[in-house]
Amino acid sequence: MPAHALFATPPLEIAPDAWLLPGFAESQALLPHIDAIAAEAAFQYFSVPGGKQMSVAMTNCGDWGWTSNETGYAYTSQDPITQTPWPAMPHTFKELAREAARTVGWRNFEPDACLVNLYSAGAGMGLHQDRHEEDLSAPIVSVSLGASAKFIIGGLRRSDSVKSIELKDGDVLVWGGHSRTVLHGLRPLPADSPLRYNLTFRQAKSQAKKR
Ligand code: MD6
Ligand code: FE
Fold first, then answer.
1. Ligand 1 pocket by C-beta < 6 Å: which residues?
2. How far apart are CA 188 and CA 161, in angstroms?
3. For the segment 110-130, what is each residue's pLDDT rounded down to a tens digit?
4. Distance 126 CA to ligand 1 centre (A)
5. pTM for this prediction
6. Which of 8, 70, 114, 197 is most buried as measured by Cβ atoms within 10 A of its Cβ?
7. φ, ψ at 119 (rounded to 5°)
């Protein structure tokens, strides 16, 4: 089964340079890879500066993985638990991310990092910006799998208004350009919600000094 749908709904620009590709990804083709990644690098609950633990469990694949602890955020080449390199990014993942980016005009997206988020009932993600990547001219591709969730997207300031969009199984967001560093988050899943997974693909390091 291909990892992306052949007849998906056309892309929708939800904010400047931020595109929703409804139903672009096929979860059945992707979920087995998540299981394999988690068998090598287990989901963990990172702490954030300030000391709180996140409600979302995370792991990574690719050359670089997003991590956090009490002292800050960092892209690391190793899982802090096993102290071994993150699992390789499955070819299917990379192709899906490149294809999604290409669909809305980013021709040279070469993700070197894939953060895998696992939300169980009640888990959510507060408003944040993704700006720890070296080259902010590269977009982020985000793939939603499993339970639907309400994604909120605002502007560059916390005082800016936010809008909420529903992300369903297979929906893909590609954003960059004017929206690359806008605030966004995920409302907590309802208490009776099944699991939701999210893959976010990034170019964490500039291509010139990949490793
Ligand atoms: C999520 N997504 O959908 C959280 N970040 O579970 C993100 O934080 C995110 O969807 C950057 C770009 C796209 C995203
Ligand atoms: Fe984010």
1. 117, 125, 130, 140, 142, 144, 151, 173, 175, 184, 186, 198, 200
2. 19
3. 999 999 999 999 999 999 999
4. 11
5. 0.95
6. 114
7. -105, 125
